[in-house]
Amino acid sequence: xxxxxxxxxxxxxxxxxxxxxxxxxxxxxxxxxxxxxxxxxxxxxxxxxxxxxxxxxxxxxxxxxxxxxxxxxxxxxxxxxxxxxxxxxxxxxxxxxxxxxxxxxxxxxxxxxxxxxxxxxxxxxxxxxxxxxxxxxxxxxxxxxxxxxxxxxxxxxxxxxxxxxxxxxxxxxxxxxxxxxxxxxxxxxxxxxxxxxxxxxxxxxxxxxxxxxxxxxxxxxxxxxx
Length: 226
Fold this sequence. Notes:
This protein folds into two domains: 5-125, Rossmann fold (3-Layer(aba) Sandwich); 127-223, Arc Repressor Mutant, subunit A (Orthogonal Bundle), CATH 1.10.10.10. The protein is an alpha/beta fold. It has helices at residues 13-25, 36-45, 62-70, 86-94, 107-126, 155-165, 174-180, 187-205; strands at 5-9, 29-33, 50-54, 77-81, 99-102, 129-132, 137-140, 143-146, 149-150, 213-216, 220-223. A hairpin with a 4-residue loop joins strand 6 (129-132) and strand 7 (137-140). Residues 125-225 form the OmpR/PhoB-type domain. Residues 125-225 bind DNA. Residues 5-118 form the Response regulatory domain. Keywords: DNA-binding, Phosphoprotein.
């Protein structure tokens, strides 16, 4: 198996050095940038496996950089930041981040989170096409398509829709959906399942007028092919 390549965009050298040492000791290939511009240029030109992204960068806001990356890639993104406010965590997750780690952090915990985020991404690379012929809805390259029109899902939206589509008519609770996306089941994440499902529905509605994601009141959500 090829060595996973991780990009770190962090302007504090001491923190970057700690991350680089921890990840390289575990066999990962690591590239570090201290500005958003340099990091984004590299990501666009190179196939990488995971991005560790600081929110507060000297030349750009990490949230905005995440949005730019999500325009062309669904690679796992872990935010690294000194901000611990709930609103910042919510914003980070809603714009497409997969995880959120606050400073100061344990290098061993970060390593565990990196490995956790890489697992589903690696699986999807080997199972790149999951077709649902009944509805014309299918996945390819970490996005879903309806009749060849991409939905342009964020990473979290993709994971949630994927869970539903692969088990038609099965009802999943918010907690089960969070677990499938490998997110912790605290109140911040749980309350945002509804907003992610709403976003998925809006994207599906833009390409198909028939509803595919349904609510089972008091239980959760399920997918029904049209």
